[in-house]
Amino acid sequence: MTTAVSAAVFSSAASSAAPPDKGVGPLLRAWRERRRVSQLELALRADSSARHISFIETGRSRPSEEMVLRLAEHLDVPVRERNALLLAAGYAPHYPETPLDDPALGALRDGMERLIQGYEPYPALVVDAMYTVVAANRGITMLLAGVAESLLAPPLNAMRLTLHPEGLAPRIRNLREWRGHLLAQMERQIALYRSDALRALYEEVAAYPVPETGPEDREPAEPVPYFALPMQVEHEGRVLSFISSISTFNTPMDVTVAELAIETFLPADPATVKYLHSLGT
Predict the structure, then answer these.
(1) pLDDT in tens, 73-92
(2) Residue 129 in contact with residue 7, Cβ under 8 Å?
């Protein structure tokens, strides 16, 4: 597994099939430009020529299936988008999309459960690309105490749980900062992918009201030299501080697996460590 700063993945609800008015050439050019790679640099990486790359991008040459996959790999194109490129080039999708509850993914599910349970008493959860919670440990359950029942009804959504006024938001001491961090993360994903579902979720959570006087305006906690932006959340009269880390699977060969992310919350100060261990969870 590889640690990343954000979950750069999308669920089946956020399908990104190639637009009917675009062939594979313009799509590859768009990915190359996003990655800020020149035609010559891409050609050298893919053992091709700048002329051939130019012909592919302008539609003068149809790339082979192998070439599409090779270019996608060197441009670090997500798995679902690689299937979209293949479809745009007239080929069948290369990567399967296995339902998470399929027996074939049993080992994956068991492994993720063991991983997040082993992280206790610290919070950890697994989400898909739409931030739907597919697994969570007791550390997360502890944090969600007091959240409205309507938000806890399946399927749970991590963004709604965090930013909804009946969710964690009223207890997050640095709500404006943490909210800005989460929305910026979603904005980066929307800018890179075609996802109507993700955009709708973004518009929903961005519209949640933010109180003019919020947790930030309460008596500040004792200053701590944090090494990254923490989420500071009130829990039973205490302020707990966590640094979020998100991990994705290295070299996934299945769309479902590629679109899973494990988020762990590392205690950001000694007081949080001491309190969590005192719970005996």
Answers:
(1) 999 999 999 999 999 999 99
(2) yes
